[in-house]
Amino acid sequence: NPYDAKGLLKAAIRDDDPVIFMESEQMYGDKGEVPEGEYVLPIGVADIKREGTDVTIVSFGKIIKEAYKAADVLEKEGVSCEIIDLRTVRPLDINAVLESVKKTNRLVILEEAWPFGNVSTEITYQVQSKAFDYLDAPIEKINTADTPAPYSPVLLAEWLPNSNDVIKAVKKVMYT
């Protein structure tokens, strides 16, 4: 969102270490409240965008919008989703994820990346290593199709994960 983008970009500029700041041009039209005053968001700190009690959904980047859509639908069905926006992936705020999983006992990870060797794989490993006993269901990962990324908007829409994929994954971990 624009607020996070400004705060994180300012943090990246001020950081003494090298920082790679990646953004999606598909987010350039996004609107949101951004204070005119000076503020900096800490690098490596995730943000709980929506409090919930039944399942944790972890995501980052533009694909998180699909998590919001899914959470709205699921709320009408009585499922309370906690949504965590990682905001940065290195450093990865794994403690925020672990604390949420300890509360909800279920985890769905939504990432716009191929299924092999990505951030969601690392999160899965970390949670299974550090909070396995808290899990009431296997972790669900939602990624793009394991094919080259298409250029056509129609094919791209099929290739990318969407809110229906999130709903299916949440229902799977909820055993419904």
TrEMBL record:
SUPFAM superfamilies: Thiamin diphosphate-binding fold (THDP-binding) (SSF52518), TK C-terminal domain-like (SSF52922). Residues 44-166 form the Transketolase C-terminal domain. Its EC number is 1.2.4.1. InterPro entries: THDP-binding, Transketo_C/PFOR_II, Transketolase_C. Keywords: Oxidoreductase, Pyruvate, Thiamine pyrophosphate. It holds the Pfam family Transketolase_C. PANTHER family: PYRUVATE DEHYDROGENASE E1 COMPONENT BETA SUBUNIT, PYRUVATE DEHYDROGENASE E1 COMPONENT SUBUNIT BETA. It is an enzyme of class 1 (oxidoreductase). GO terms for molecular function: pyruvate dehydrogenase (acetyl-transferring) activity. This is Pyruvate dehydrogenase E1 component beta subunit. Its cofactor is thiamine diphosphate.
